[in-house]
Amino acid sequence: MINKSRDYMNKKGSEGSPVEAGNQGEAEQPLSTVAFLAKSLSDENRLRVLLSLREGRLSVSSLVEALQLSQPLISHHLKELKRALLVKVERNGPFIYYELADKRIIKIIKDLETVAGELLANRRTF
Prior knowledge:
56% of the residues lie in helices and 11% in strands. The model is unreliable at 1-6 and 8-23 (pLDDT under 50). The protein has helices at residues 2-10, 28-40, 44-52, 60-67, 71-83, 104-122, and strands at residues 58-59, 87-92, 95-100. The chain folds into 2 domains: 1-40, no CATH class; 44-126, Winged helix-like DNA-binding domain superfamily/Winged helix DNA-binding domain (Arc Repressor Mutant, subunit A). It is globular, with a radius of gyration of 17 Å. By secondary structure, the protein is mostly helical. The protein contains 6 helices and 3 strands, in the order αααβααββα. A hairpin with a 2-residue loop joins strand 2 and strand 3. A 3-stranded antiparallel beta sheet has the order 1-3-2.
């Protein structure tokens, strides 16, 4: 699964369209990876899922209860977060648990929240 996500990131252009091999320069590769990650963070419910996982692993049912979202919606967002390599999956008997793949993502979310708040506070026009 990790290789599929990396392949997906490597084969996507800045607009999300496939690019031909060798068409992308070395300097552009990190930005396409950042863009892929940013798209994964562009949904409020995904951010809520990630923030819920900051204290440790949780099951889908625990996330459903904590976030008051439907099970199919939580499962969809977890699938996208897994595809983006932001969460890890662990099976324990009949239960599946999710946890953050890298806790640094919480600081990034908090920093984005601060920047967004400051930008909106200083905005004069809409």
